[in-house]
Every structure is written in C-alpha cells, then in structure tokens.
Write a structure and sequence with these properties.
8-stranded mixed β-sheet, alpha/beta, 4-stranded antiparallel β-sheet, 18 strands, single chain, 2 domains, Alkaline Phosphatase, subunit A, globular, about 725 residues
Length: about 725
C-alpha cells in the first residue's frame, strides 16, 4: 500500500483521481437523486459530460501551488467544498424538488430553517457513498511520505551557478502545465455549451427552470450562474429609490380607465376561478376540423359555447403579450398588469425577492382566500417562491397529486385528472376565494396517449399541427367536466370564471403549415399573419348575467386584472397597472406585444413597417414622412408602458409604493406543505364548500370519462392519499 501511495505521490496523480471520482459521483447523483427530465441519447450524453468542465477548472486551482502538500490539501479543501454543495443540493431536492439558490441560502430564513430542521429526516443510509472520494483523498494525503518539492529536486541536481535559472524555468513549466489544464476545462465547457445550445437554444436567456441549467450545464455552473445573476439583480435594486417611481406613477394615473358603471361590481363577493388554458389560440374558437373523409368536427365545442354565452364577456381581438417567460409571463400580465422581462422570466429572475401588487395580495385585502393549482413541479418557473411573493395562501403543485403510472405525461398531470383531483383541495377553501388553475395537456409537442384519443388528427405534413387539434379537444372536454362539477356542487352560481389562452401554441415557423386549414395561402403568409396569430381567447363568464357579448376591442393580457377588479367592485386607480379595464369606455384599444409590435383597430406596427389592420396590406410606403412620423410616435407611446413596467420589475419599485386599499402582508412564511391540514385549521373554515355541505366531500359529484379513473376500482384507502413527497421520475418540465 505504501508503495502505491508513494508512486501516486511521486507522479502527482491525486488530481486525476479526484477529478474522476468526483465526476462519477456527480453523475450518479444526477441519475439517482434529481428528476431532470432527461430524454434521448443526446441529453444523456450531455448529462454525463456536463459535470466535468467545472470539476477540472476548480480542481486545477490546486495545481498552481508548487509544494505538493499544499497542492494536495488545497485539492482536498476544494473537493470537500464542492461535495458539501452537491450533498446540500441532494438533501434540499429530496425535500423540495428544487435546487439551492443564493436567495435561499442567504435571504430566506424560513426556507433555510426548514432545510436545516429536516436534514436528519432526509439523510439516507447510502449517503456515505457521496463522501467516499473525500475520505479516500484524505487517507492518501495523510499516508503520503514527506518529500521535497519538484522545484527543490530540480534545484538540487543543478549546479550552484545555474540554480537560479533552473528554478525560474521549473517554476514557469509548473504553472504552464497547471494553466493548460485549466484552459482545457474552459474549452470543454465551451464545447458543452455549444452542444447544449443545439438541443436547447437560448438556454441562458430562457432560464425558466433551474432543472434545465443543471441538466445541460451542471450543478456547479448553475450555482455560479445563480450567484452572478443574483448579484446583478441586487445591484440594480440597490441603486433604485423612490425617485425612480415618479414617471411610472404619472403614467399609470394617466393610463387609468375609469370603470363603466353598467358593469362595476356585478360580480361583487363572488368566488373567482381563473383558468389558464395552455396554448389555446383564438383561431380554435368556432373552428371545425375536416377529417380525411370530409366530415367536419368542432374542436372545442364547450369553450365555444362559453365564448358565445349571454353570461360571458368575450374578446375576439385579445392578444397574448408574453415573451421568453411564456406561461409565467402570462401570469405576470394577468395578475400584476405588468409585462414580463425583455429577456428570461420575471418569475425566475425576480420572483424570489420582489414586492408584487398581485391579484392574490389585492383580493386578500378584500377578504378572499387565495390558492393556485398546477399539476407540475413547484420549481418550474420558480412558482413556489414567486407565489409566496404574490400572496397565495395555498399552492398545490405535483406534490399534492397522484402522478403515477398513466396519470401523467412528460409535462405533468393530465387535465381531466388535474381538475378532478383539485376538488379535494378547492372544496376546503374558505369563501370567497380566488383560485387559479394552470392546465398542461395541450402543450407542445401535443402528445396524447391512445386511451385519450378519439378526435381526428389534422391532415397536414406537420405531425405537431396534426396532434394540436386532438389535445385541444381533450382540454375542452376537461374544462367541460370541471364546469359540470361547479354546477353540481353549487359553486357555479356564486363564481366568476375567467378563462384565457396563455400564449401561442403553433410557432411562426409552423404557421404556414396551418394556413390552408384557415383558408389562407402559405405562400402569402408573412409577418402580419404571424402577428395576428398571437390572438388568444379571453372569456369572463359570470353566471346569471344576460347581457354578455363578443367584443371586438383590441386588447391584451395586461388588461385582465383591472377588468376583473372592477367587475368585483374594487377600485384600481391607486395601483400601478399598465393595462386598462376592457369594459371601460376609456379603453384605448391598443395592444403592445413583448417584441415591440403594436396593434390597434387601424394599424399594425411591425418593426418599421405599418400595415392596415383590416386588410393586412403594407401601407407605410404610401404615407408621407409627416404621416409616418405621427404613426411612429403613436407606436412609441404604446411601447412606453413596457419601459415603465421593466423599471418597476427590475428595480423592485413597488417596495416604495403601497396603495391605501392594499393591506401590507409579509410573503407567505411556510413552504406550501401539509396544506390540507392547514386548511382544516383555517378560522374561516365554516364558509368552505365542504362545511356548507355538512362536512361531506363533494368529490363524488365530479363526473369524468378519464380512462385512468375507470381503470381502477381501488378506493381511497387502497390507493393512499395522493399527497406525494417525491416527484415521479420522467416528468418533463414545460418548455
């Protein structure tokens, strides 16, 4: 043994041993501990490679020390530090299905405390294996015989006259070798990043899920990236003060549209049920798909009936305004009346630290209970942290649902099961409540299992488009089942139900393939058509109302919050909203998309081009310079809202501004766990649906044709409670 140790010491191979062992340990942790949603050979190769670059870079620091003992102990310290980081993430992930961030480690006492108190419970018997490489290196270093340094050996064999020259030459060679290894690690990382960009373009600008960064670039890179990102964000915040608010306040007051007396307060004290319809676009409304036999099939018959109901206020020229944040941006727009960020996701970038005047916070001040429901992991889009800042009392994510076997697909719980299983929690909410449901089944690339098929596919040369209509029909059925339950349980008549499409489902690249289905020529498809394909449905359904209609008002998601507040009888003139009440006679009918395009009933501005909104014809060349300049000023005024929104978000300016009607509350001080038990201790519990039903659950009133429900005859005792503490393997994050 001593001979082996001596040989290792002589050849200075500890570095390579440490690198290989730590690399394999990290890769094993990826596979065993983390649910990263890795699919396909290419992603598995990336997962195997990605720990190596930063292991080499960090461990190579030890090679710059000339003395072997110093070099070896510095290597041990680095290995110990990285092992501690990896193991801390393992323990945290076991409890919270998420990775540690700087905000969690430094600025969130409740999360850090919860992590520490649950550490013992999270330790497993096999965890010692994560420390074997550290113990082995420590043993080798302790047993290594004392020796002179390589530099000293070189100096001893040289003559006295040239000893200085020998020392400098050896020292230069020593550092040169160390630098070459560091450089190799950097080049390896660049290669890793290029490969990651092939599989996941714009990875670092669309950082909507921490799991993606770890999957593609590794946990060590994620930690460094998060630190830099947090420092940059904090720097912007630190330089902000109340003076930065003045322009935004002035704009918001000027932009405020007074409520229409005809509609103000018609939904007062009702429950609010918000449904975010994943990837549902406006062209699906009233659309009939022709099958291969020439028969026509209505894709979304139930949503169509809601859209045209006399109890609904619906909008046919309503646009999503999301950017890279996609679904999370839609939530920012709908619940803050602010835009997402120019790059990345506001949820991911700012959601753990910012102050928000969000729908849940506002309605809590009006006596509402607030809850969000989502059949995917809470770390996705950083929802767990962000919802706490939004003021959600409760958040039921995948931890609270049964996602076993065929109940889930790559992206989470199927919609029919999601709505059905949410009833167990919704019926416990004290009324009035505000609840948000985020669907996922109708999401790119629109896969559906054979058991849930039944609607014909489109007949195009693009399989994604063909499946798009199948999953849209499935989503329609799921929503109809949910509405049937609301009616059967008695919640329907005392609720306002808001449904909106969150973002496009068919991308600009695929739009020409769908053009023939819409009666248009693919050869004539261009920027104007792509822009107007960004329309999504908005339906505000108020049971009992009889004056509903379909409005042609040009509008966007930023208008949802002020409209909803006025329908509930709540004034909004004190809030810094960028949107306007859609039912107000003062609504200006202008929509600004996150990419800077502006649309109103007359003009569509796309970069420097101007189109006639009604005809789609380019008209900027027909306008005089004076006319064109006037229209550009109109466009730029519309864009101004985005710049004020960006300042509010990036500088966290709402911390300096509190409307009188808003009760200031601290962010939620628990981690959205054991919420059913917390609900049962709520002092307003007597107003919940289940208590009004004599303590008897209403879940038996829910009727669904979901084959997954029909495939089992097990009762609740046999199945166990669907409150899982682990996210099932194979659940893919939404992209």
């Amino acid at each position: 043994m001593s001979r082996i140790i001596s040989k290792l010491n002589k050849k200075n191979n500890y570095f390579f041993i440490a690198v290989i062992l730590f690399w394999l340990k990290t890769y094993a942790a990826y596979l065993v501990e983390f649910n990263l949603g890795v699919t396909g050979l290419f992603q598995h190769i990336l997962l195997f490679i990605n720990p190596l670059p930063f292991i080499i870079i960090f461990f190579s620091i030890s090679l710059y020390f000339k003395r072997k003992k110093v070099s070896h102990y510095s290597l041990l310290i680095i290995q110990l530090a990285l092992s501690f980081l990896l193991y801390s993430n393992i323990l945290y992930y076991r409890e919270f299905t998420d990775f540690l961030t700087m905000n969690i480690m430094m600025g969130s006492n409740n999360v850090s405390g919860a992590m520490l108190t649950s550490t013992i419970a999270m330790i497993r018997s096999w965890d010692l294996l994560y420390w074997v490489d550290v113990l082995l290196l420590f043993f080798l270093i302790k047993k290594a015989p004392s020796s002179t340094t390589d530099v000293e050996e070189a100096a001893n064999v040289s003559t006295k006259t040239n000893s200085r020259f020998k020392f400098l030459t050896t020292n230069k060679t020593h550092k040169g070798k160390a630098f070459m290894i560091t450089k190799f690690g950097v080049l390896l990382f660049i290669g890793n990043l290029l490969l990651a960009e092939i599989d996941r373009p714009q990875l670092l600008t669309r950082t909507f899920d921490r799991n993606f960064i770890v999957k593609y670039l590794g946990i060590n890179f994620f930690t460094g990236y998060d630190v830099v990102h947090t420092i940059q964000t904090n720097s912007i915040r630190a330089n902000a003060d109340e003076s930065h608010l003045s322009k935004a306040v002035t704009y918001a007051k000027q932009n405020h549209a007074a409520p229409n007396a005809e509609y103000f307060g018609i939904a007062e004290d009702r429950n609010v049920i918000m449904i975010s319809m994943e990837s549902i676009q406006q062209f699906l409304i009233d659309f009939e798909l022709e099958d291969e036999y020439g028969r026509k099939h209505e894709v979304m018959p139930f949503v169509n009936s809601l859209f045209h109901s006399e109890a609904s206020y619906s909008y046919e020229n309503f646009f999503h305004q999301t950017g890279q944040g996609k679904s999370a941006d839609a939530e920012v727009l709908a619940e803050l009346s602010l835009y997402g960020l120019p790059q990345g996701s506001a949820f991911q970038t700012l959601g753990s630290s910012n102050t928000f005047h969000a729908t849940p916070n506002i309605l809590k001040s009006a006596g509402y209970t607030t809850a969000a429901f989502h059949g995917n992991v809470g770390s996705f889009w950083n929802r767990t942290d962000t919802y706490g800042r939004f003021g959600y009392d409760y958040f039921f994510d995948s931890e609270f649902y049964d996602l076993s076997e065929d109940r889930a697909m790559e992206y989470g719980l199927k919609d029919k099961l999601f709505f059905h299983d949410s009833v167990e929690y919704m019926e416990q909410l004290p009324q009035p409540f505000y609840s948000k449901f985020i669907t996922v089944t109708h999401h790119f690339p629109y896969p559906i299992d054979e058991a849930n098929e039944g609607f014909p596919k489109a007949q195009t040369d693009d399989e994604t488009i063909n499946n798009f209509f199948v999953t849209a029909n499935y989503a329609d059925q799921a929503i109809e089942e949910f509405f049937n339950y609301l009616k059967a349980s008695g919640l329907y008549d005392n609720s306002m139900i808001v449904l909106y499409g969150d973002h496009f489902g068919i991308s600009n690249m695929r739009n020409p393939h769908v053009a023939p289905l819409l009666g248009q020529d693919p050869e004539e498809w261009g920027n104007y058509e792509n822009t107007h394909m960004q329309r999504v449905p908005l339906i505000i359904h108020i049971p009992g109302e009889t004056n509903g209609q379909v409005f042609d008002t040009f509008s966007g998601q930023v208008d949802i919050l002020p409209t909803m507040m006025h329908l509930l009888g709540l004034e909004t003139d004190q809030y810094l909203f960028m949107g306007q009440d859609l039912l107000s006679e003062e609504h200006d009918g202008t929509v600004t998309l996150r990419n800077g395009r502006v649309i109103n009933k007359d003009y569509t501005f796309i970069e420097q081009s101007v189109y006639d909104t009604k005809t789609g014809n380019e008209i900027h060349e027909d306008l005089s310079p004076v006319e064109l300049n006037a229209l550009y000023k109109q466009r730029d005024r519309a864009r101004q809202a985005m710049s004020y929104s960006d300042e509010i978000m990036q500088m966290d300016l709402l911390r300096f501004y509190t409307p009188e009607s808003l009760t200031v509350t601290e962010p939620i001080d628990y981690l959205y766990r054991d919420q059913l038990q917390i609900l049962k201790r709520d002092n307003r519990r007597e107003t919940s649906l289940i208590e009004k039903n004599g303590g008897v659950s209403t879940i038996e009133l829910y009727e669904t044709d979901a084959p997954e429900m029909m495939n089992t005859d097990m009762d609740e005792e046999e199945m166990g409670h669907p409150n899982h503490t682990e996210t099932p393997k194979g659940i893919e994050r939404i992209e």
